[in-house]
UniProtKB/TrEMBL annotation, chain B:
Domain of life: Bacteria
SUPFAM superfamilies cross-referenced by the UniProt entry: ACP-like
Protein name as it appears in the record: Acyl carrier protein
Keyword Phosphoprotein annotated: yes
Secreted found in the keyword field: no
Lineage of the organism: Bacteria, Pseudomonadati, Candidatus Omnitrophota, Candidatus Velamenicoccus
Residues of the Carrier domain: 3-78
Coiled-coil portions: none
InterPro entries (alphabetical): ACP-like_sf (IPR036736), PP-bd_ACP (IPR009081), Ppantetheine_attach_site (IPR006162)
Keywords associated with the record: Phosphopantetheine, Phosphoprotein
PROSITE patterns reported for this sequence: CARRIER (PS50075), PHOSPHOPANTETHEINE (PS00012)
Amino acid sequence: MVCGQRAKSGVSPGVFMKHTEIVITGIGVVASNGIGREAFWGALRKGVSGIKPVSLFDTGSIKSKQAGEIKDFDAKLYLGDKGLRLLDRSTKLANVAAKLALDDAHFTVTEENTDETGVVLGTTLGSVWSISEFDKTALVEGPRYVNPALFPNTVINSPASQISIRFGIKGFNTTIATGFTSSMDALKYACDFIRLGRAKAVLVGGVEELCLQTYLGFYKLQFLSGSKDDDQELNCPFDCRRNGIVFGEGAAMLLIEDAEAARARGVRIYARISSLGYEFVPYRINKYHRLGTGIRKAMKEALGAADLDVEDVDYISANANSTPEADRIEAVAIREVFGSTAQKIPVTAIKSMVGETFSASGAMQLAAASGSIKEGFIPPTLNLREKDPQCTLNCKDGISQKADIRHVLISCFGPSGVNTAVVLSKYEK
Amino acid sequence: MAPSIKDEILEIVATVIEKEAGDISLDAHLVQEVGADSMMALEILAALEKKYHIVVPEERLKEMTTVNKIIQMVETARKRG
């Protein structure tokens, strides 16, 4: 949307891309159902789930057993042998995704462009394992015997910093830790940098690793499916049997660029970031706001800023993560924002395939929606057998539907009170 | 046959510096010739203290310039107990 243009839907334009058009030119994904853009899109198209029994640690003493784990992940295959010895899993996942995104965009960091290139990463739990292991060594063996070279892993900005170090990106480096919406907040931050003329290209995304400590934390909070009495472990967004999230790990990084710079490079453009809607509605710790006012406002803001009517949206990439409350709140919000169109517009929840990847989830949705736009498909929502009457939406189980996609509305929110929505659009010269 | 202290220390240094043990000359300057840095030196020191249950004062870090000097330092510390 051009500054000053009036939104068709009549709502406040909110955060939008003034004069600067921002596009996605590189995609790097490390997900439980596929590593690399093509494998990830292929899995989404075929409805392949990455959910499986956890093998990274023992789940014998608890009732939840499954996760979107990335089996046999070997960073050396993508990054070479050197410089990986001290890096933790989050940092390796993020670096592999960054490498894949840069390669995909044919973007080489040089002395000429490095100051106009940045890194923004969303991660919240990324250093929990490293902190825990570092402290364990200090407690068990004594503080003298901790490895000082492992200390940098214990800080939350380690994965983002390692990306900048490895690829020589000097423009800026920021970590955003806002829980479920971290990578969407990272996108907003990255777009602001480009819009303000302080960067031409930004590597933006999110990462979370699967580890015992975070898995147990979510389990004890009873966020995980199967963690409550007599619960069956299921990952089924919008289904009336849903009873909590199945945790997922992974990283998704996107190279976003000022469209003018991308055009000058003559590079392939996957999609245009048309708008971002943001609403912060603090409520209670770990509690979704029952009325879902935040996500409604964020969706309306994104549509208004993109100058779209609800009929212009080809599908909605839902936040839905199989949590009873969150899925219902989102379904109600979609019905209110889209009115009678809500029953027709396809809605999909990719978390049914990759699990709740937390800080990485928004970036995963962006990577998935880019595939939809580029290759013309709408991913399915798996395990949707008994539709919840409170979540009556146009969701399909099984495999993807073919469709010409021009605009996708992506929603992402969490119980922290942050609500985000993004309109991703087909790039037309 | 158990590895000698020389081989053990060389292996620790090689692992930290990410080089083959055979490529590190015992008298080569670890920073100027082999590519070590101050963080690597700290890591080597911590690993040696842990392996041999010794305490090496941090001020002796600057003396760890070659593998041979590290071996000497460890042997002295072990004798000291």
